[in-house]
């Protein structure tokens, strides 16, 4: 318990110190994704995950570790995103052009899968790879981590938002708003949110989602950013709160954007479980301790 408290303290302070444009979904979103995945692990995958993490941790406990270490391992910062211009026609193959030296979320997911599949890796290596994979599967489903409008993934786009029941506007930056699941601050319990979202996942959803590669999921997120998130917004940064007086589009009040955010959490959780079930299918433990 003491170690867990220390980890949470370090995580909270690191997130405060480091630029927010590297973070995605926030604690609520990442833990929700991890709970969905944890619930969908098959018995063999569950056993292998427990061997890697130990009996007192699960996927939700490691889901924000990758954010917590950015300050002490700054070389990992570019691994959380890539910047593909939403104002230009793009295809899936353009992702490689914005992923130099494999320093982006797509290639890092592939790298972590490779480490977990390798027959002779230490438990420490496997735990690090699993911790990165759990987190990056969340990042790659956050549309603003897969797109850019010359606004640092929405961090330099300030917009006016009217909370429900309030006459007064609040100024929010677009990226943080999405990190908090279309709220100025995420307040939900991730375990309860995961259960609610799981209950609405249908067999047809699983058939559609349980396939593909990291670049497929990244391009899917990019298209959401291009066609839904940025389409009605002014181009480029909006740096000064109040100067432009730009309101959030009506879609944010109709519930459309929240639906998109929840769907992305569901996809990320389902696909993370699908990956882990495949990686650990009949896999015998050959790791060194």
Q: What is the topological layout?
A:
Layout: H1 2-17, H2 26-39, H3 43-53, H4 59-62, H5 65-68, H6 105-117, H7 123-139, E1 158-161, E2 170-173, H8 174-179, H9 190-198, H10 203-209, H11 214-229, H12 251-254, H13 256-279
Antiparallel strand pairs: 1-2
Helix pairs in contact: 2-7, 2-9, 2-13, 3-7, 6-7, 7-13
Q: How would you sum up this structure, described in words?
A:
By secondary structure, the chain is mostly helical. The protein is globular and about 55 Å long. α2 packs across α7, α2 (26-39) crosses α9 and α6 packs antiparallel against α7 (123-139). Residues 1-21 and 284-289 have low confidence and may be disordered. The two termini are 23 Å apart. A two-stranded antiparallel sheet has the order 1-2. The protein is 50% helix and 3% strand. It has one domain (2-279): P1 Nuclease (Orthogonal Bundle). A hairpin with an 8-residue loop joins β1 (158-161) and β2 (170-173).
Structure in a nutshell:
The chain has helices at 2-17, 26-39, 43-53, 59-62, 65-68, 105-117, 123-139, 174-179, 190-198, 203-209, 214-229, 251-254, 256-279, and strands spanning 158-161, 170-173. The chain is mainly alpha-helical and 289 residues long. A two-stranded antiparallel ribbon has the order 1-2.
Helical content stands at 40-55%
Widest beta sheet: strand line-up: 1-2
CATH architecture: Orthogonal Bundle
Strand content: under 5%
Overall 3D form: globular
| Regions with little confidence, pLDDT below 50 for 5+ residues | 1-21, 284-289
Q: How big is the Rg?
A: 19 Å
Name of the CATH first level? Mainly Alpha
